[in-house]
Amino acid sequence: MIAAFVAAVTATFSPQGERPAPTSGAPAHVVVAPPPAPPQLLQALQTIGAEFNGEAGIAVRDIQTGWTAAYRGDELFPQQSVSKIWVALATFEDIDRGRLRPEDTTLVRREDLSVFHQPIRAKVGGQGYVATIDELVVGAIAKSDNAANDILMRRAGGGEAVQAVIEDKRLGAIRVGTEERLLQARIAGMTWRPEYSEGWSFQHARATLPDDYRKANLDAYLADPADGAAPAAITAALARLRKGELLSPASTARLLEIMGQTETGRSRMRAGLPEGWTIQHKTGTGQELGARVTGWNDVGIVTAPDGRSYAVAVMIAQTTAPGGERNALFQKVARTLAEHHAKAHPAEPAQDIAQAPAPVN
Question: What are phi and psi of 79, to 5 degrees?
Fold first, then answer.
């Protein structure tokens, strides 16, 4: 099923997940392909990916010129919390269309809570907690709050509505899946119950399941992840976001600002970037079974001191490597990109790559 999905996407989109745009002044019917990736960088990234003890996918896209260097870049990897980006995108789409305002409020109740990491739970008392839409987006992206994300997804119309935004914007091989609480229950072979949102109830219930049952369900999820996405498609989408092609200028700026406030993944890509580089990103961390770790990801936009930006996606479907080795993968990719940039663009003046955004329909 995964092969068929990717094949269908490839038939419609370029390998980087979008239709190449004609260069300025070129006839509208002429399609100009992006330049090839720098050979040394491509080889370095492929070596990093191949040598990792696990199933990894890597993509790096130069936002200015459009080349993409990748290792297993067109395969689907489980996103886990990376998919919160697309829920935020759908939320800002509603804002741009006038269906929602950042200052609009919603009452968060106990029954709205989710599973695993959800800092907002501490604010929800017996009478609930009133949160603004902007606060929920900050929680979902910067804090990776599962409850905040699930509430936003339901406000947007559910996973199908978010997927419709992805397809309308032609983002390629990206699936959003469903609410975190439903997805995580399915991965474990469980049916979601509201009481699982309290304390460690979900983990305790999951621990009673036989390991072979959990393994079968985890294997099924990894073989066809409901929230699967191709690293190259993610970097293409992030590049279009950075260039202002997906949202209004105000919404683009706010989403990127929030991604720059991300608190998770301090030992992943961020730890491999030299001083002076910045990162706007989103991490993802999946379930574990024994020594097996799944959905360990970091994707985002990194910017050099001279202003040149790159979209980067590093994704681990599954591995038994310890945390230090997993983090080293992200750091190697970031460091390798920075080294390439220093050689390819020595002492370039600062630049602004933002382009006029496409009209908001």
Answer: -85, -35
Task: Please report which confidence band the pLDDT of residue 31 belongs to, taking 50, 70 and 90 as the band edges.
Answer: low
Given pLDDT bands bounded at 50, 70 and 90, which one contains residue 33? confident
In a domain, 351, yes or no: no
The pair phi, psi for residue 8, each rounded to 5°, is -65, -40
Query: What's the CA angle centered on 351, arms 44 and 90, to 5 degrees?
Result: 80
User: 52: domain CATH number?
Assistant: 3.40.710.10
Chain-centre distance of CA 57, in angstroms?
13
Quote the domain boundaries for residue 11: 2-21+34-344
Decide: 269 and 330 in contact? Cβ < 8 Å. yes
**Sign of the alpha-carbon torsion through 211, 216, 222, 228:** negative
Q: How many domains are there within the chain?
A: 1
| Res. 255: pLDDT tops 50 | yes
What is the distance between the alpha carbons of residues 290 and 198, in angstroms, rounded to a whole number?
24
Place 126 in a pLDDT band, splitting at 50, 70 and 90: confident
Could you tell me which residue, 114 or 21, shows the higher pLDDT? 114
CA 296 distance to own-chain centroid? 11
